[in-house]
Amino acid sequence: MTARGLFISFEGGDGAGKSTQSRLLGQWLEESFGAEVVRTREPGGTSLGRTLRELVLHGEDVEPRTEALLYATDRAHHVASLIRPALDRGAVVITDRYLDSSLAYQAGGRELDPTQLRELQLWAVGGLVPDVTILLDLDPALLPQRLTGAPDRLERAGDDFHRRTRDAYLALAAAEPERWRVIDASGGIEEIAGQVRAAVAPLIGART
Ligand code: TYD
Q1: pTM of the model
Q2: Per residue in 160-184, pLDDT tens?
Q3: Which among 8, 91, 126, 165 is least buried, having the fewest CB atoms inside 10 angstroms?
Q4: Cα(162)–Cα(170) distance, rounded to whole angstroms?
């Protein structure tokens, strides 16, 4: 964690509890290890990103390639201006969503070509992949009860879309088990937080 920081991403369906778990993990890393923790999210981790977030979630309807490029633009700027500098100074970066969201939503959900989309992502981020990715896995059938407020464009995409997205996440995790940890997100907040800490602890040489 000294030479280069630690890069952690949370993934999962809308309303799976990513932001709560990212906050609890960040607090634990700060309080127990005195780490510099940078918590961020996609889309919208930067000022430009917040404009892009508004456009992609609440703007006019766009076709899947345009949607994919908007997310990739947000991500490229996010990495260059915030994530990479933080990692270079040794911080722990915790992001709520990263490139796997595009692979799950735009390839899985929108059915764009996964190979091309992966290449686009890696190009956009200059090859930066998280040290660990935590999938908070939740059956999409449970989602509507957790969502609050008016649904955005992606939340309105329909049940099949969200099922394809979940399947894509599980396939990504199965294909790269050394990077992914899959956690059942239907449990209680504290129970899930304990599993998240256990997933991250080996990377910081800690015991939970
Ligand atoms: P987010 O703010 O994480 O919403 P939530 O809190 O509901 O999970 O993400 C907004 C939406 O953008 C979400 O539906 C997932 C979608 N998304 C993509 O489709 N592709 C991407 O690359 C990213 C980062 C998000």
Answers
A1: 0.94
A2: 999 999 999 999 999 999 999 999 9
A3: 126
A4: 12
- Rounded Cα gap, residues 15 and 9, in angstroms: 16
Q: What is d(CA 198, CA 28) in angstroms, rounded to the nearest whole number? A: 12
Cα Rg of the chain (Å, integer): 16
For ligand 1, whether the C-beta of 14 sits within 6 Å is yes
Dihedral angle of Cα 202, 204, 207, 208, to the nearest 10 degrees = -90
pLDDT tens-digit map of 20-47: 999 999 999 999 999 999 999 999 999 9
What are 8's strand-pairing partners? 94, 132
Domains and CATH numbers, the chain: 6-207 (3.40.50.300)
How far is the C-alpha of 140 from the C-alpha of 159, rounded, in Å? 7
Q: Would you say 165 and 149 are in contact if contact means Cβ atoms under 8 Å apart?
A: no
From 184, 164, 183, 167, select the one nearest 175 (Cα to Cα): 167
Atom of ligand 1 nearest to the CA of 110: 19
